[in-house]
Amino acid sequence: MRRRAFCLGAASALGMPLWSWAEVGGRTLKVPLMLDTKRMAIHDGPGLRTTFFVKGCPLKCVWCHNPESISPKEQIARFGHLCRKCAKCKMDEALCPTRAFKRYGRAVSLDALVDKALEDKAFYDASGGGVTISGGEPLFFWEWTAELLARFKAAGLHTCLDTSLYAPPAAIEKVLPLVDMWLPDYKAEDDARHREYTGVSNTIIKRNLERLVAAKAKLEVRCLVVPKCTDGEDIVARHRYLNSIGIGDDKIVELEYLDYARSKYLALGMKDTMPPR
Predict the structure, then answer these.
(1) Which of 43, 46, 179, 241 has the fewest CB atoms in 10 Å of its CB?
(2) Whole-number pLDDT of residue 19
(3) How far is CA 89 from CA 84, 126, 156, in A?
């Protein structure tokens, strides 16, 4: 009964709040759980980088390849193909002999994140790299993200922000002077299509993109090409729109869609919404 209850509720919160609150510089900030840290990353901006992934995103993209990043809650995944169904299973990542369990979401302090980033500063300096904040959606926690970016900048680090740009104008204005390079996604040009596949309108995203262009921000726009969803005319239309606001094709990266995350949906007890390739 215990195992059945776990399988049915693997994607639910473990009695934790959606996020925590912290006093920083006399202000109370909404603080995300951290999902992962990737060192020596080469696809998250220039040079060698450390990428920090926050947990929580207001979009619900049907093709999301990191379903563990959607909910801001802590989650435990059970990978059935690794599980031996031990009689005395503790459902604990640290104790599992086959690594069948994975915990997603941990509280990490700002100081600890800066310390982790500085461990590889010599590599950033040699390669023209730095740090990237990704998710989930960092601007879902924009005041906290601004504080972390400010600390990275104070430490002399190059900063990138990987974001959907689905955020209020105040968020963009707050982090604009703290981001050396923006890595926004542009998921669909047609608004109805955008709503269907992500759950939100692209109106705010377009407005924020245009604000970044007006500010002459350094950009690399990522366009995922999903067969029968956002390929064909929509990718052509995305290029057309981006070109019209001053973003050349040399600043647009088309990303191939991969559906390798299906096992994570299953392990988390989530409905697999990924379109076929």
Answers:
(1) 43
(2) 55
(3) 9, 47, 46
> Long-range contacts: 84-88, Cβ < 8 Å, 24+?
85/3
Strand partners, 104: 75
Q: Is 46 within the bounds of a domain? A: yes
Helix intervals (H) in the chain:
2-8, 110-118, 121-127, 142-154, 169-175, 191-198, 203-214, 233-244, 262-268
Residue 86 belongs to some domain of the structure: no
With respect to residue 136, please indicate whether it lies within any of the assigned structural domains: yes
Q: What is the CATH number of the domain that holds 174?
A: 3.20.20.70
Q: How many domains does the chain have?
A: 1
The CA distance from 46 to 23, in Å, is 33
In a domain, 87, yes or no: no
Q: Which residues pair with 130 in a beta bridge?
A: 49
Q: Which domain holds residue 37?
A: 29-75+105-268
The series of mean pLDDT values per 10 residues for the chain, 277 residues long, is: 36 44 67 96 97 97 97 94 88 89 94 98 98 97 97 98 97 98 98 97 98 98 97 97 98 96 95 94
pTM given for the model: 0.89
Look-up: residue for tokens 């990737």?
A: 38
